[in-house]
């Protein structure tokens, strides 16, 4: 067992931990980063699957994500636009396929009006929410006691309008059923992206991708940190007190003045604390859980949908794959579709055997794009639920009532221990931008305390 001393030990080499470590290093503090996996990046993972470069984890960058954009510039990474020319596809409750342009789905005029009104109402409410402290809204407690699906029922009797608006936050973002999280949690999700309209606008929220893959961010940050990043080092015990911390992993033990716990909040309680974390922390982490979504990639010899006049963008709250996009990789002449299967539908997919799983997903894609979608050259399903050091996707959110009750303590340090993760962020919540923001803020707080 290697024993080392540093100013700060960072636990977790995702975008957040590596940003914190880089900022601390810039301020003149010494750091060690302990990472459980045999790679850096956490939920950012770009890999070669059967000859295709695929983003198994996070990939998109939107124009409001200035912390991420600055990091990309600093690291010299280039971006490219998602293909978006042509018509989008919507499948309604009867299975009827319709093409459309813009953001509003081709539904009956009455339903369209209800959708527009709901978006306006949500935008107005979101404008009142500070993403850094949604619990401070005067109606926070009430909004946290009602599920998002129930709240939508109080707004409109139009089921198709509710299903569509629900999908943008439930299947597409928090990746939990709309009955499993509160209206306040939904408003935080939208406020973190600037407005509800931004979430509905695929051209905004899924704007750019990074040449070489988004995992370049953690890989390049880790490269700068060099030998101070220790892989295969899951921290099992954290001793802490007024004089600092000792983080004990399987390979290395680090004594430091401060610790940054840069792990998803659902994994905080996997570590043994000596002494135990305070009551409030032990309670609050029990009220957070990961959403669950399968990210599916299908690579074809050509982007055949483009020749058929389609953009590749497709939505339906009634399909197994509730949203899908052209995800062709920069410079690859082949065509790639990415689709998402969320929450209970994802449970159902994993209950099938491997062949039936593939068949069910490809059939759903064929409903949007035609029979050519049934025969990809490469097919890959992400399985973040089986990843011990993540346990779901995309990120963690509170159960009913949890955000108003515990939110204010989420980011509060405990003695020398600070918390940093996209799942704790306000702006950029559940996104790489939030991970980086948290890393910068956490490092600044430690630098101030350290008097560096
Ligand atoms: P992250 O979970 O990445 O890092 C935590 C690290 O801690 C991991 O490396 C883990 O192994 C390590 N760890 C845990 N316990 C440990 C222990 N005890 N000891 C040592 N190490 C430990 N975002 C976005 O902006 N655009 C997008 O398009 C998407 N899409 C997307 C798709 C999919 C499928 C996923 C799973 C996620 C996304 N996201 C996304 C979300 C985005 O990937 C995510 O918010 C950030 O990468 C999270 O970064 P963090 O550093 O906060 O946590």
TrEMBL record:
Keywords: Oxidoreductase. The keyword Transcription regulation does not apply. GO terms for molecular function: oxidoreductase activity. It comes from the Bacteria. It comes from Orlajensenia leifsoniae. Substrate binds at residue 340. Its cofactor is FAD. Belongs to the flavin monoamine oxidase family. SUPFAM superfamilies: FAD-linked reductases, C-terminal domain, FAD/NAD(P)-binding domain. This is FAD-dependent oxidoreductase. FAD binds at residues 16, 35-36, 235. The keyword Oxidoreductase applies. InterPro entries: Amino_oxidase, FAD/NAD-bd_sf, Flavin_amine_oxidase, Flavin_MAO. Residues 16-446 form the Amine oxidase domain. It holds the Pfam family Amino_oxidase.
């Amino acid at each position: 067992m290697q024993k080392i001393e540093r100013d700060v030990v960072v636990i977790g080499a995702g975008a957040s931990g590596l940003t914190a470590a880089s900022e601390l290093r810039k301020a003149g503090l010494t750091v060690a980063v302990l990472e459980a996996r045999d790679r850096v990046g956490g939920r950012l993972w770009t890999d070669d699957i059967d000859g295709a470069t695929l983003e198994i984890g996070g990939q998109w960058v939107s124009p409001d994500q200035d912390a991420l954009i600055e990091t990309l510039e600093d690291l010299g990474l280039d971006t490219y636009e998602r293909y978006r020319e042509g018509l989008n596809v919507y499948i309604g409750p009867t299975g009827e396929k319709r093409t459309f342009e813009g953001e509003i789905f081709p539904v009956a005029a009455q339903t369209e009006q209800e959708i527009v009104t709901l978006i306006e109402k949500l935008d107005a409410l979101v404008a009142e929410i500070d993403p850094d402290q949604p619990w401070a809204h005067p109606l926070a407690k009430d909004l946290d006691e009602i599920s998002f699906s129930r709240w939508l029922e109080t707004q409109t009797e139009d089921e198709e309008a509710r299903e569509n608006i629900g999908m943008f936050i439930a299947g597409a973002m928090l990746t939990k059923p709309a009955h499993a999280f509160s209206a306040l949690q939904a408003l935080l999700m939208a406020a973190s992206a600037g407005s509800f309209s931004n979430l509905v606008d695929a051209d905004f929220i899924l704007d750019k991708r990074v040449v070489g893959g988004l995992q370049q961010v953690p890989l390049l940050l880790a490269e700068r940190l060099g030998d101070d990043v220790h892989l295969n080092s899951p921290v099992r015990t954290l001793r802490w007190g007024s004089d600092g911390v000792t983080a004990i992993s399987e390979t290395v033990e680090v004594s430091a003045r401060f610790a940054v716990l840069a792990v998803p909040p659902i994994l905080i309680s996997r570590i043994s604390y000596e002494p135990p974390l305070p009551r409030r922390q032990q309670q609050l982490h029990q009220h957070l859980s990961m959403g669950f979504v399968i990210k599916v990639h299908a690579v074809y010899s050509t982007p055949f949908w483009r020749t058929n006049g389609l953009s590749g963008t497709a939505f339906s709250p009634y399909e197994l794959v509730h949203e899908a996009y052209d995800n062709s990789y920069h410079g690859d002449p082949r065509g790639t579709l990415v689709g998402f299967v969320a929450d209970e539908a994802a449970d159902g997919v994993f209950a099938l055997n491997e062949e039936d799983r593939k068949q069910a997903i490809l059939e759903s894609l064929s409903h949007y794009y035609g029979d050519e979608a049934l025969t990809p050259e490469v097919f890959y399903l992400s399985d973040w639920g089986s990843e011990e050091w993540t346990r779901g996707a995309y990120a963690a959110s509170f159960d009913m009532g949890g955000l108003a009750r515990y939110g204010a303590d989420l980011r509060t340090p405990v003695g020398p221990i600070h918390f940093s993760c996209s799942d704790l962020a306000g702006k950029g919540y559940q996104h790489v931008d939030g991970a980086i923001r948290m890393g910068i803020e956490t490092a600044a707080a430690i630098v101030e305390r350290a008097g560096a």
